[in-house]
Design goal:
The structure holds 2 protein chains of 2 kinds.
Chain A (H helix, E strand, L loop, with lengths): L6 H14 L4 H38 L15 H11 L10 H16 L19 H9 L1 H12 L3 H32 L4 H6 L5 H4 L1 H15 L10 H4 L9 H26 L14 H22 L5 H32 L7 H33 L3 H10 L4 H8 L1 H12 L1
Chain B lengths: L2 H22 L3 H21 L3 H25 L14 H21 L14 H10 L5 H22 L4
Helix pairs in contact in B: 1-2, 2-3
Classes of the chains: A mainly alpha, B mainly alpha.
Chain lengths: ~425, ~170
């Protein structure tokens, strides 16, 4: 094994050799398992610091500010300074709070975000545990984050926290539907739930084969994390900070950590499912799979930062309408279109994973997406006609909603948008 | 005792403790959290049995969806923060049903011929086999489809109950 190709496996091999000199085989395997878990946890913590720095710097540049610039060169030590600050803050427990639940919630939140990394393949063989239900495990454990938010919102004895928790349930449980439905598409094509197999089956990246599913997974992943423009769970201007309003010091930092680690986890999942995971061209004859994975995941996180810096927050009804009347029908349609297109392409004699096959799949997906947009804009137009608003109001409104055409149209064209899309799915 | 047995006993204790706490907790919310602990213990038991798909599905469906909805329902009931009386006037029926269930379980426990010795190895493609069994007419296609029909009926029924009366 080349040191540059995979320094981590090389290092682990050296460590095993050294441990074997004075330890029984059983002890070596247990020590290595503990070390593997610990290094994944530390990796998540380090990525948390990097992500917060990238976000603050990125959003600052978008808003024509400088961002953190005092602690270290380009402010890269700002997260450390913030960590020390969080530790020294007073730890407040509100009156009549449910102490046990109140204290467990931030821990559960951070744990739920961090254990996702156990099943993410960072390179060939570079995975915490290659379990055969990989993606199902990730979906299952990240659902625990919802539970943590509910526990925090309920136990804080604060009406804003409770309101935030209510909205969270509606949002997160709803967006889990298109997320799961769209993850089924790459699972179908790869024929496995294991993320390692899914990456291995991507000579052509799945984002070119299943663009609709890729975008839906990315969007609903962002909604699951509660990042802008889906940040209704801690909307500062409406419910102050939602579920973590009463938390201070390190407990608040744990919620903060959970958000960023979860966001990076979503980037890693999308990378593994749709961007070919660790696949990438050789650099001067050296393959660096772990570096490719890392670059792709950080780029995806940058897209989230970009969205946060540029898009305003959605209203709760727009958010729900966008999910149930656009994302869910589209992912249901793609569940039907993808296997049909796959069978058709294979019936034409194209092998799965080849470029011609990918082109056929892409054509079907693009047709499906265009059709969905056509249905949505038609429904929106019908709703506007039915409302019979005066001409100048319509003009002002269409100018106003330039960035949010389909969501806004959907919010008004409620039933009209749903029926044709559902009918189209059959 | 092997490590597996120790793990089994620990997880069983957590599962049963969670179940017991669900029943005796004074606060409705604590009951729901106890139920979640119990469900998580069951998922761990599936994991011990190398039924990883069942474990994942247990966490995803029971904790991720059903328990969340239970908590949501609890939060929407009046007096979220207060404690509730643990029994209502239906306790006599509840005792009959629980005792009947206990009797069935005990009879099964003592009359069933439990297999002895080492269990067969779990095949590597167990999930693929499960998937095929669910759509194979010779195996579980009919029960699977009947469950789907039941769910659709429940969905339509709930929409009918919840929609605005005109």
């Amino acid at each position: 094994m080349n040191v540059i190709n995979d320094p981590f496996t090389w290092l682990a091999g050296q460590l095993v050799n050294w441990l074997s000199t004075f330890m029984p085989a059983n002890g070596v395997s247990i020590t290595m398992a503990v070390l593997r878990a610990a290094s994944l946890g530390i990796f998540a913590l380090v990525m948390f610091m990097v992500m917060t720095w990238i976000e603050r710097k990125g959003v600052a540049r978008i808003q024509n500010r400088i961002g953190p610039n005092l602690a270290g060169p380009w402010g890269i030590f700002q997260p450390l300074a913030d960590g020390v600050k969080a530790l020294t803050k007073e730890d407040i427990t509100p009156d009549h709070a449910d102490r046990i639940v109140y204290n467990i919630a931030p821990i559960l939140s951070a744990v739920a975000a961090m254990i996702v990394f156990a099943a993410i393949p960072f390179g060939p063989g570079l995975i915490g545990a290659d379990i055969n239900i990989g993606i199902l495990y990730i979906l299952a454990v990240s659902g625990l984050g919802v539970l943590a938010i509910l526990m925090a919102g309920w136990s804080s004895n604060n009406k804003y926290a409770l309101l935030g928790a209510f909205r969270v349930v509606a949002q997160l449980v709803s967006y889990e539907v298109p997320l799961v439905l769209s993850i089924v598409a790459p699972v179908m094509l790869a024929g496995s739930l294991s993320l390692v197999t899914i990456v291995e089956k991507q000579p052509v990246w799945f984002i070119l084969v299943l663009p609709a599913s890729a975008v839906i997974v990315m969007l609903s992943g962002m909604a699951e994390v509660g990042r802008s423009p889906f940040d209704l769970l801690d909307a500062e201007s409406e419910i102050i900070a939602g579920h973590h309003i009463e938390y201070s010091g390190m407990k608040f930092a744990l919620f903060f950590l959970a958000e960023y680690v979860h966001a990076f986890g979503v980037s890693c999942i999308v990378t593994a499912l749709f961007l070919g995971g660790w696949r990438g061209p050789d650099i001067a004859g050296v393959t660096v799979p772990w570096l490719w994975f890392f670059i792709k995941a950080v780029l995806l996180f940058n897209i989230m930062v970009w969205a946060r810096g540029t898009l305003p927050r959605l209203r709760i009804d727009q958010l729900m309408a966008f999910n149930w009347k656009f994302l869910v029908p589209l992912s249901l349609a793609s569940l039907i279109v993808v296997p049909l297109a796959d069978r058709l392409a294979q019936g034409m004699g194209l092998t799965q994973g080849s470029w011609p096959w990918a082109l056929v799949m892409l054509a079907f997906n693009v047709a499906m997406i265009l059709w969905a947009f056509a249905l949505v804009s038609a429904a929106g137009r019908r709703a506007r006609m039915a409302a019979q608003v005066p001409a100048e109001v319509t003009a002002a409104e269409s100018h106003d909603e330039s960035g949010y055409g389909e969501e806004h149209g959907l919010a008004h064209g409620a039933d009209a948008g749903h029926a044709p899309a559902a009918a189209g799915a059959h | 005792m092997t490590t597996l047995q120790v793990m089994f006993i620990l997880i069983s204790l957590i599962t049963l403790g969670g179940g017991l706490y669900t029943v005796i907790a004074k606060n409705l919310m604590h009951s729901a959290l106890g139920l979640i602990l119990s469900l998580a213990g069951v998922a761990c038991l599936y994991g011990l049995l190398e039924a990883s798909f069942l474990a994942g599905a247990q966490v995803l469906i029971y904790i991720g969806a059903i328990a969340i909805l239970i908590i949501f329902a609890v939060m929407l009931t009046r007096g979220v923060m207060g404690s509730f009386p643990r029994v209502n006037d239906q306790w006599s029926y509840a005792i009959i049903v629980s005792l009947a269930l206990l009797a069935v379980l005990l009879v099964t426990l003592f009359r069933f011929n439990w297999p002895q010795g080492a269990p067969a190895a779990v095949p590597a493609d167990s999930i693929a086999r499960l998937g095929r069994a669910l759509v194979d007419p010779g195996q579980y296609a009919l029960p699977f489809e009947m469950a789907s029909v039941l769910l659709v009926a429940a969905l339509i029924g709930s929409i009918y109950v919840a929609r605005d009366k005109k």
